[in-house]
Amino acid sequence: MDKRIFGKDCWVAAVTGFFTGLFATATIWFSGVKIPNLVLFSIILIAASPVWWVIVISVGQILGRKFHPVIAQLTKFSAVGFMSSSIDFITLNFLSWLTGVTEGIIIGPINMPGFILATINAYLWDRKWVFKSERRGTRELSKEMIGFFTVAGFGILINSAIVYLMTTYVGPDNFSPTVWLNISKIVATSVATFFNFVGYKMLVFPDVPETTGQTVK
Predict the structure, then answer these.
(1) For 155-171, how does the pLDDT look when each residue is reduced to its tens digit (9 = 90+)?
(2) What residue stretches are annotated with the GtrA/DPMS transmembrane domain (predicted)?
(3) Range of the domain at 161
């Protein structure tokens, strides 16, 4: 294993972890969730998130070498996915707070801007760090981007449909509308993330070698 590449992966994991913790903290503040000692909790979350993702990436590299390289790739995809999701969540909660909308047909459009920003962020990180695409030509890049955003487009439809259905038809009485909106978003994001990973792996980056920190010859 190339230690320089492994070290770079850990640094990238720390950066993605920091922003994940930061945006997750902002989401909690906007959502109005009651947490004792919220300031202390926020500091711990922001500080612990980079450490957690460095550990996850390190374990993924070890398991990837021992069993299958896709494990390492999946852990990096997860790190990017959590950061992108945190962008999605903070955008959704900010727009919900701004408009007062937490359910109904209008929640679909309210949900979309965050997913679009998250998808752009995911493309940039997935292309260079997770799948390490080396495509350079205009035609190749155009084909790659069209494929990526097509998969992401289906992902946003799945994401928004689940959020709409859960907030409009399933919402329980023992959760506030804002809390249930975020629970619905977690379920929707989990399903959409799995769909996106399979789509990217099979359709967008099928020819990219799976590596676990070693230099590709």
Answers:
(1) 888 988 998 898 888 86
(2) 76-205
(3) 3-204
Tokens 């023992």 belong to residue: 174
Is 105 within a domain?
yes
Residue 101 lies in a domain: yes
Residue 130 maps to a domain? yes
Is 175 part of a structural domain of the chain? yes
How many of the other CB atoms lie within 10 Å of CB of 36?
Answer: 6
Instruction: Quote the number of domains for the chain.
Output: 1
Instruction: Read off the pTM.
Output: 0.73
Whole-number mean pLDDT of the chain? 82
